[in-house]
Design a protein that fits this description.
The chain is an all-alpha fold and about 260 residues long. It contains eleven helices and two strands, in the order H-H-H-H-H-H-H-E-H-E-H-H-H. Belongs to the peroxidase family. Ascorbate peroxidase subfamily.
Length: about 260
């Protein structure tokens, strides 16, 4: 069932209001990314190839380790789905994610709609399609996951820029602090450790923070060792700076390109 265009337009306004009242931009971006991030370019058949197909609404997939906490995103978005039943979950998750990026100060990303939902939990992808928080060989692991989706090293780094939004929560990923001076009072749900100071703003600060890493004595900002190692192994200082200049739009465009699959 294709999503109704009028309902998509109306739902976008409801999502904007939801964002204004809950400051849930990061978790809605994560919802869209995790529904899309199971995509496998080497598989022709649908839904076996994964991707943005609404499968993340089922408990079996929500219980995957990488999806810890996303039940909260589904609870936020479900009333909008109930109000606009002609929108598929697959489209709604991506609409929410793209709208959250825009409302956080990122680019307005032209979206296409018409994604089809899987019909049952038996069509959910197996666990292990998304990045692990603590693999034994981080760079190799990231390449294995993202090459499967059709991305190269530069695109992996650019996509990592989406961490300009949100926080790491140790009860979900095993990484980060329970709270910092930047997160202990919210806005939104308090706690966690952010990658950036202004963790509700979609900008280039995630990459700028990398170049300050050697100057910090107190790590209140969380830098994932996965991304840091990938940087160190794949990017020269000059190419990193060149890539950083492009990332404000590139990271979101890469995210949404995955979501279109």
């Amino acid at each position: 069932m294709a999503s109704d265009a009028a309902q998509v337009k109306a739902a976008r306004e409801d999502i904007r209001e939801l964002l204004r009242t809950t400051h849930s931009h990061p978790i809605l971006v994560r919802l869209g990314w995790h529904d899309a991030g199971t995509y496998d370019k080497n598989i022709e058949e649908w839904p076996q190839r994964g991707g943005a197909n609404g499968s993340l609404r089922f408990d079996v997939e929500l219980k995957h380790g990488a999806n810890a906490g996303l039940i909260n995103a589904l609870k936020l978005i479900q009333p909008i789905k109930d109000k606009y039943p002609s929108i598929t979950y697959a489209d709604l998750f991506q609409l929410a994610s793209a709208t959250a990026i825009e409302e956080a100060g990122g680019p307005k990303i032209p979206m296409k709609y018409g994604r089809v939902d899987v019909t049952g939990p038996e069509q959910c992808p197996p666990e292990g399609k998304l990045p692990d928080a603590g693999p034994s060989s981080p760079a190799d692991h990231l390449r294995e996951v993202f090459y499967r989706m059709g991305l190269n090293d530069k695109e992996i780094v650019a996509l990592s820029g989406a961490h300009t939004l949100g926080r790491s929560r140790p009860e979900r990923s095993g990484w980060g602090k329970p709270e910092t001076k930047y997160t202990k009072n919210g806005p939104g749900a308090p706690g966690g450790q952010s990658w950036t100071v202004e963790w509700l703003r979609f900008d280039n600060s995630y990459f700028k923070q990398y170049f300050r890493i050697s100057k910090r004595n107190e790590i209140r900002i969380f830098w994932s060792y996965l991304q840091m190692l990938l940087y160190l192994r794949t990017q020269s200082s000059r190419s990193m700076r060149r890539n950083m200049q492009r990332t404000k739009t590139h990271s979101s465009e890469t995210t949404l390109r995955l979501m279109l699959n």
